[in-house]
């Protein structure tokens, strides 16, 4: 595939490989206004970027890697040097700690045994991604595949997906090195979690006769696959209409408000806030774009989705009271979760 157009623009896949951000993370930052594509094809919707935007993308990735909030990322990128220094100085301790950790990792020398078609990822980052997704899996005797996690490998990285039909979580992780070919497999959620929990440094994931082989240093382990078709979650995502309302709010305040909820929670998205009903009503500050909308959620479904989110902010895309809500967040990878609203009468 040609990576550039005649004008010298880069495809979203090329920018992903050049910067370490996944394609979904680039779309997220475009929707936030931090990294708008230079051109969006009116027919296909494909996004294209200038080579110069790669430097901005790398800086965004680094700032988000230390969980700098989105408004402050914008300040660092667009404000004057003095203000940028002031914002960054507040994070110097964390930056120093991360720099020391990075130096320790860089000092380690590891020889990875890569199988044919394998993909190399950061072990700790991949284990984190698995933990964030697996809670959407469920043991269902009628649909055994729902106890599994779908692993999809392509040239943009590894996508990890699980669903219980009421909640769907999917997370992508950027590869450390290029991917030889695309493949997918479904493995049992608990087995996968245990296999990657203590893996050091880097690990290699490779397709192995319907299952997955995990290679860490000199150790190798095969995880058997689940021989059933995983739900076509991409068709669900593609079939959703455009967002009628988009909400950007803090993750911690929403999680705190949901902690005390034991029954269906009504939420009203309007103006400059999100109003939560229940025994102790509360209104959370938020940026709401689009038409006001009222939905209700089962806190047992919504709370885990918020707990597992990445970063300090959440973006919610709302379509209708009876359609899934898309909950997104991103750092050096991305986490997208679909949560079904409920009938407020139940």
TrEMBL record:
Pfam families reported for this sequence: DNA_pol3_beta_2 (PF02767), MerR_1 (PF13411)
Q: Name one GO biological process term.
A: DNA replication
SUPFAM superfamilies per the UniProt record, alphabetical: DNA clamp (SSF55979), Putative DNA-binding domain (SSF46955)
UniProt keywords, alphabetically: DNA-binding
Instruction: Tell me yes or no: is DNA-binding among this UniProt entry's keywords.
Output: yes
Q: Which InterPro entries match?
A: DNA-bd_dom_put_sf, DNA_clamp_sf, DNA_polIII_beta, DNA_polIII_beta_cen, MerR-type_HTH_dom, MerR_fam
This protein's GO cellular component annotations are: DNA polymerase III complex
**CDD domains listed in its UniProt record:** HTH_BmrR
Q: Which domain of life is it from?
A: Bacteria
In alphabetical order, the GO MF annotations are:
3'-5' exonuclease activity; DNA binding; DNA-binding transcription factor activity; DNA-directed DNA polymerase activity
Q: Which SMART domains match?
A: HTH_MERR, POL3Bc
Q: Which residues form the HTH merR-type domain?
A: 9-79
UniProt name for this protein = Multidrug-efflux transporter 1 regulator
The organism of origin for this protein: Nocardia farcinica
